[in-house]
Amino acid sequence: QAKDRIKHTRQSQLIGPLQPIIATAGEGITLPCHLVPGENVTPMTLEWTRPQIYLCRSSLFTDELKHGNVSLKLSKVKPADEGRYRCYIPDKDEEAFIDLMMIICCATIPKPKRTSYCFLIYAFNRY
């Protein structure tokens, strides 16, 4: 697929998105990653890594592991979560990289009759 970053292997491919995932602070997001063709990875070791990783706010779609879906769900995303994530299945020597970019914006209303808006986009492409 043209929009996916693919690492080729002997039997299957671990696929992550080509474009960075864009998130707003405080929301939950999914970092998509899956095997094609779908394969049961339930008995395999799965590693998601990133420096200073998202402690206690991450989960897998455990019901989807049997179909090769190894996507990572992050809750309450913070600006510190921005960066490159590595999805790795050692048993298959397969890896994919997913870039997360944050958009931070604020709106302030200093007085009831006057409205001012401040928007700051914090999005760096980390390739």
TrEMBL record:
GO terms for cellular component: external side of plasma membrane
Q: Does the keyword Protease apply?
A: no
Question: Which organism's genome codes for this protein?
Answer: Pundamilia nyererei
**Biological process (GO) annotations?**
regulation of cytokine production; T cell receptor signaling pathway
Q: Which PROSITE patterns match?
A: IG_LIKE
Which keywords annotate this record? Answer: Immunoglobulin domain, Membrane
Q: Where in the cell is it found?
A: Membrane
> Ig-like domain location, by residue?
26-99
Protein's recorded name: Ig-like domain-containing protein
Tell me the InterPro entries matching this sequence.
Ig-like_dom, Ig-like_dom_sf, Ig-like_fold, IgSF_BTN/MOG
Single GO term (MF): signaling receptor binding
Q: Give the Pfam families listed for this entry.
A: Ig_3
Can the keyword Transferase be found in this entry's annotation? no
